[in-house]
Amino acid sequence: MLDHFLVTCRDRRLVTARGQQRTDATQVLAAIRTLNRLECLGETLAHTLHQLLWDAPGWARTTIPAAWWDRYGPRFGQFRLPKTVAERAALAVAMGVVDSAYPDADGLVRSQAQGIDLVAPVQRDSSWQAQADAGFAVACFALDWEAEQAQCPQGQTSRIWSHSQDAGGHAVIHIQFDRDRCGACAARPACTRAVTGPRTLKVRPQAQHQALQTARARQETEAFKQRYKRRAGIEGTISQGVHGFDLRYARYRGLAKTALQHVFVALALNLSRLLAWWAERPQAQTRQSRFTAALKHAAEQPLCAA
In order along the chain (306 residues), what is the average pLDDT of each group of 10 residues? Predict the structure, then answer.
């Protein structure tokens, strides 16, 4: 039925073939205790921040960490918990600094190996040097992978290059420069805030590091931002399927029946869109979370006097 419907639409030039496709399949949600508790926790914190933005907007704008705006601004139902224990451990470590729901370095490398151009934002460098855009971040250092040596922007070479693992079980490289040379360097304030210690770096292995640096540079370009705008349409389609046709809930037992349900959902969704188009019904506005709406309200309020 769906095939016949699509063929009919194609013959009438109502739909055209597309060269790109979303790679993640629709998911059937189960009553999983971990996901339920996580969502309750996220919604509780988002509600607390929302209330603060309405009751004390000036205080909230100057006190709440900047990384929280991106993390709790979107609707929490869009968040997906990592599948493996190692990935969840890595997420727990990184959540204190920046939203780790984005593709990581390992995912970028795997995608490249499979010939997939992963168009998605990656986590930014969370170091104070990168955040201030006035210091020597990791990207400013030249890394010689074969010699296992790093060179700082002032021309000094590293003293220690050691391999280890982080809390999530990922391979990392610890790099340390000479204490005496770092202590006498005139550019030290732009490099480290350590009182007496030398500058240290922690990077991923070569393939992951280079993939991450390339992705970070690309996502700042206008070309990437234009390509990523397509996500809005993709998310709109998934949202319509979820809220209008119960896409995430299986009505029957068994994969075969669930797959058939998804086919009927796709058919109903296409019919609904065609009817709306023929009736010239305007598209609904993108829904915003209460926290995002509160952010806009807070931005319009004057800051509290010192």
Answer: 79 67 42 60 77 79 72 65 58 36 74 75 83 85 94 93 88 93 90 90 92 88 80 72 82 84 86 85 70 73 58
